[in-house]
Design a protein that fits this description.
mainly alpha, about 230 residues, Double Stranded RNA Binding Domain, 10 helices
Length: about 230
């Protein structure tokens, strides 16, 4: 496969092609001229671009919610999926050892390369072009996000914490339901009898309210445990 194929997949024609080559160069190929510095730059740019996009998309989200949403997008697993979507593996410049051990398919190498390419695009064409390319790769994933994604694990995490203490599972009580049937708002209480604690959660669905209450409960229990 030729570099022109990769350029088309990336969506950017480099004015400085050496930047793309450097972004594809693993340290096993060249200890001096490799993609590690570009990876550092690309990581910072990715966090900013995704953070700014989420800030605009979710105007009512709290700082913690935005942080968790961003983390879900910039984590290694997501970057690896982007790398495979672009089919970067065949274009990587790897040393003999990495080639032999299948480095072109290794998740960490692929994820790092995506960040390096982001850094390369920025140096080649500036922030606006870089942002446009990044969002083109990430938009389908961003479109699928909701604020409920930020609390989806709280009930499971609370259950696991309580089981580790050999305590009974929490109870969830609906305290209030407001609004018409098509736009209800729930207030739910999470109770852990052994701790003598209860916390309220609110949300546009029973599930969201329960998750919020579970998150507050878990935070209180973990803080209490660390203080004992």
């Amino acid at each position: 496969m030729t570099a022109a194929i990769l350029v088309k997949r990336i969506g950017h024609v480099f004015q400085q092609p050496q930047l793309l080559e450097l972004a594809l160069t693993h340290r096993s190929y060249s200890g001096k001229d490799n993609n590690e510095r570009l990876e550092f730059l690309g990581d910072s740019l990715l966090n900013f671009i995704i953070g700014d996009t989420l800030f605009q998309r979710f105007p009512n989200a709290r700082e913690g919610q935005l942080s968790r949403l961003r983390a879900s997008l910039v984590k290694g697993d997501t970057l690896t999926k982007v790398a495979r979507q672009l089919d970067l593996g065949p274009f990587l410049l790897l040393g003999p050892g990495e080639l032999k051990s299948g480095g072109s398919r290794r998740d960490s190498i692929l994820a790092d390369c995506v960040e390096a390419i982001i850094g390369a695009i920025y140096l080649d064409a500036g922030l606006d072009v870089c942002k446009a390319r990044v969002l083109e790769w990430f938009d389908p994933r961003i479109e699928g996000l909701t604020l409920e994604d930020t609390v989806k694990d709280n009930k499971t995490r609370l259950q696991e914490w309580l089981q580790a203490q050999k305590w009974a599972l929490p109870t969830y009580n609906i305290l209030d339901i407001e609004g018409a049937s098509h736009s209800q708002y729930f207030v739910v209480e999470c109770v852990v009898q052994q701790a003598g604690l209860s916390f309220r959660g609110e949300g546009g669905s029973r599930r969201q309210a329960e998750q919020m209450a579970a998150g507050l409960m878990l935070t209180a229990l973990e803080n209490g445990k660390s203080q004992s």
